[in-house]
Amino acid sequence: MGDIILIEGDNELNVQMVPMVKWANINLSVIDAETKTHLSGARVRIDHENGSWTQNLNFSSPDSFDGELCGFTAGTITITAEKEGYVSFSQSYTLKEGANNITVEMVTAAPPFDPWSYDFNSDGYIDDSERAQAGFDYFDGIITQDQLNQVLALPAPPEPPPPPPPVTGLISLYMTGISTEEWTVGWYYADEDRFRYHREDYHGAPNTRWRAPYDPCTPPPEYPIDLNSLIVKIETYSETHVCPKTGYKGSCKWGTFGPFVVEDGGVYTLDLATGVLS
User: Do the domain assignments include residue 252?
Assistant: First the structure.
């Protein structure tokens, strides 16, 4: 204030009083919310309600901001922080006169969702089990509906080609290894899951499937067998020989033999005692 000159008599004086500015200083730390370690290299912005602001493009935690230099008075500020790999942060604070210690905790950002992460066997397809796991994760709240849809939109494995048709043909089969009076062969057909027998007139017996032990059995000519997977079921019958399976005379069921690989038109002998086809 300058000098005041008074004159004789009454003098009216007007003195203007300016309030003291309440400067607010900021001590700011930016840390990892989980590890509590200080983060550097963040993009930090401080906006004050009076319109003044400061911005630090390469913030090094911790740092201080002088209220008078930055124009920060007691009042409200908004702090915004961004850093690669973290969720963007923005929050308002009330400043008081003097020192204000503020800590910004930044949360690690989840990595971008990759629907191919469900390709567990890395075959370039999402099979039924992998789709099911994505569904379970959706219901458990691990992924969103949109992320589930991304997984389901990925290609499924192609349908496997149909198996090649079996190589078929006819053979003649003899038996050895046991003593019996008659024997018969059931020929297995996988596509029908059944055994068929060749019935024909034989030694005066009409339409029979039984053969003498020294004669061969053959498949029904109208039903060629699978040459790469021959399976047969053997049964013998004798009134004079005891069946080692039952301990009695009569029918003796030897069960199934095979699978064997044979050639069309081949003549083979099956040893019932050892199961060896030759």
Answer: yes
Question: Which of 199, 220, 221 has the alpha carbon at shortest distance from 210?
Answer: 199
Examine the domain organization and report whether 124 and 100 are in the same domain: no
Q: Which of 111, 110, 101 is nearest to 30 (CA)?
A: 101
CA dihedral (239, 243, 247, 251) positive or negative: negative
Residue 278 lies in a domain: no
CA distances from 274 to 113, 123, 217, 254 (A): 62, 45, 19, 11
* 232 domain-assigned: yes
pTM: 0.47
Q: Distance between CA 78 and CA 72 in Å, rounded?
A: 12
At 21 the pLDDT is: 76
The 10s digit of each residue's pLDDT in 222-271 is 999 999 999 999 999 999 988 888 889 999 999 999 999 999 999 999 99
Give yes or no: residues 101 and 186 share one domain: no
| Mean pLDDT estimate for the chain | 90
Q: 192 and 252: one domain? A: yes
DSSP assigned state of 116 = G
The domain that holds 265 is classified in CATH as 2.60.40
Report percent pLDDT > 70 for the chain. 93
| Structural domain includes residue 209 | yes
Q: Give the Cα separation of 132 and 118 in Å (integer).
A: 10
**What pLDDT shows up at residue 94?**
94
Domain that holds residue 35: 24-106
Q: Calculate mean pLDDT across residues 60-77.
A: 89
Shared domain for 267 and 178, answered yes or no, is yes
